[in-house]
């Protein structure tokens, strides 16, 4: 068995009287693609927010590569090698595609101890590698022909892909993706599946995928964790989850799932 890269233990998060996440425990092994699914409001985005240090947990721990990263801050989580994408397109619309990727690179440099210590010199040292690294990321994500276009001028599907490119610019070992297929057409969705598989197979990335598009989840993930009202109700291989009575009852059988 491969060692766990991410291990989440007893993670809880309250918002006032609402328990958005209740004692969530799961692991993701190095090189795995794991799905995190469940109805709207189940706590999936909250789980991402707590894991990446955007908000602190009410209880529980997050370990990444054996290190305790519970409670962030997000810059420390990024430097540890864990990056995320957001549910909505989160790029700077007036900034070029390359400029957005550069901002992702800066967040890595700014968050590292070395970057803080050497300040401007750190920026200049990194500057020598910047163009080549931006080009490499744009090649992988197939955005090279849009290099100088303002992010806001890209079709929606490509804006979401740029969100992945920005996350890749932090040189992560693991990527958390929050509904990357939402709003994508069939072709864009196939393209996304290809990219995610490439990132895992060719670039050694480990992926945690929140997604309602069940065909995509079932096709890509080795393992799926199911959240309902903040609690894990099931975990297993796609074929087991598909047939799990509790999962069908709480999520897969719901009318609003029928389109996926
Ligand atoms: N910052 C917040 N303040 C208050 N309640 C929140 C906050 N973020 C999320 N929630 C609530 O927590 C629950 C889980 O939300 P969320 O994690 O966004 O679910 P999902 O991503 O699975 O749709 C929802 O009831 C939501 O309204
Ligand atoms: Mg969400």
From TrEMBL:
For this UniProt record, give its keywords in alphabetical order, as a comma-separated list.
Answer: ATP-binding, Cell membrane, Membrane, Nucleotide-binding, Transport
GO terms, molecular function: ATP binding; ATP hydrolysis activity; L-isoleucine transmembrane transporter activity; L-phenylalanine transmembrane transporter activity; L-valine transmembrane transporter activity
Concerning PROSITE patterns, the annotation shows: ABC_TRANSPORTER_2
Instruction: Please give the SUPFAM superfamilies that the UniProt record associates with this protein.
Output: P-loop containing nucleoside triphosphate hydrolases (SSF52540)
Which terms in the GO cellular component ontology are assigned? plasma membrane
One GO term (biological process): L-alanine transport
InterPro entries linked: AAA+_ATPase, ABC_AA/LPS_Transport, ABC_transporter-like_ATP-bd, BCA_ABC_TP_C, P-loop_NTPase
Q: Which residues form a coiled coil?
A: none
Can you give the residue ranges of the ABC transporter domain?
6-254
PANTHER family, per this entry? AMINO ACID ABC TRANSPORTER ATP-BINDING PROTEIN, CONSERVED COMPONENT OF ABC TRANSPORTER FOR NATURAL AMINO ACIDS-RELATED
The molecule here is called Branched-chain amino acid transport system ATP-binding protein
| UniProt source species | Pollutimonas bauzanensis
């Amino acid at each position: 068995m491969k060692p766990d890269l991410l291990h989440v233990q007893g993670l809880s998060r309250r918002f006032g009287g609402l328990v958005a996440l209740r004692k969530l425990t799961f692991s993701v092994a190095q090189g795995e693609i794991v799905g995190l699914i469940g109805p709207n409001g189940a706590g999936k985005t909250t789980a991402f927010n707590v894991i990446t240090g955007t908000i602190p947990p009410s209880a529980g721990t997050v370990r990444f590569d054996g290190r305790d990263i519970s409670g962030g801050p997000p810059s420390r989580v990024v430097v540890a090698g864990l990056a995320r994408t957001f549910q909505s397109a989160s790029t700077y619309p007036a900034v070029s595609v390359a400029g957005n990727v550069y901002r992702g690179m800066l967040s890595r440099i700014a968050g590292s101890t070395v970057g803080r210590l050497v300040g401007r010199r750190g920026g200049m040292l990194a500057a020598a590698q910047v163009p080549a690294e931006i080009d490499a990321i744009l090649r992988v994500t197939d955005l090279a022909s849009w290099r100088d276009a303002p992010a806001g001028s890209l079709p929606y599907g490509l804006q979401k892909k740029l969100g992945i490119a920005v996350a890749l610019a932090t040189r992560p070992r693991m990527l958390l993706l929050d509904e990357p297929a939402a709003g994508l057409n069939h072709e864009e969705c196939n393209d996304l599946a290809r990219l995610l598989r490439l990132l895992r197979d060719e670039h050694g990335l480990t992926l945690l995928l929140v997604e309602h598009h069940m065909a995509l989840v079932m096709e890509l993930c080795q393992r799926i964790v199911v959240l309902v009202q903040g609690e894990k109700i099931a975990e297993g291989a796609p074929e087991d989850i598909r047939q799990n009575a509790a999962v069908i009852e709480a999520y897969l059988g719901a009318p609003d799932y029928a389109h996926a």
